[in-house]
Amino acid sequence: MNLHKILKIVAALLGLAGIIFLVMIISKGDDAIKAAALDGDSAIIDPMAYVTYIIFALTLVFVLFFVVKNLFTHTGSLKNTLIGVGAFAAVLIIAYIFSSGDDASKYLYNGAPATEGEAHMVGAGLIAFYILIVGAAAAMALAGIKKITK
After folding, report:
1. pLDDT at 75
2. Biggest CA pair distance of the chain
3. How far, CA to CA in Å, does 30 sit from each of 24, 34, 47, 129?
4. Pick from 29, 24, 21, 11: nearest CA to 47
5. Which backbone phi and psi does 110 adopt, to 5 degrees?
6. What's the mean pLDDT in 37-46?
7. Closest-CA residue to 45 (of 29, 61, 65)
8. pTM greater than 0.70
9. Where does the chain cross the membrane (predicted)?
10. Which of 23, 45, 123, 134 is the most buried (most CB within 10 A)?
């Protein structure tokens, strides 16, 4: 049996499990699920979550496998990929350097103040987001200008 047939069988089984668990969730009703959740019981939802985790893990494994396989079979694109990864890492490092966790105590989550490390990471994420947004806008503007001037 080849890999394609095995993957089709696995996909069909996961799809069937997902449909069965969805029907079970729908048949319980919203009120029963909410009441169980208030008691800390998530047994109604757990099987569907596990199917989701399995599908996510399989997707991640296959994407990573084929990305790495294509990088090494098409070595011409390896240089561009490494430049992109390096640029992204540089953006993250720059964002981390410019962020601070000084105002951590004013942010609350469920009544508990954020730690300095949490505030520092959130700040770095926001700064990285801003840098990437500006970079994407500049790239689109340059591409538009190039297209107009041709």
Report:
1. 79
2. 65
3. 12, 6, 17, 37
4. 21
5. 55, 35
6. 84
7. 29
8. no
9. 7-27, 47-68, 80-99, 119-145
10. 123
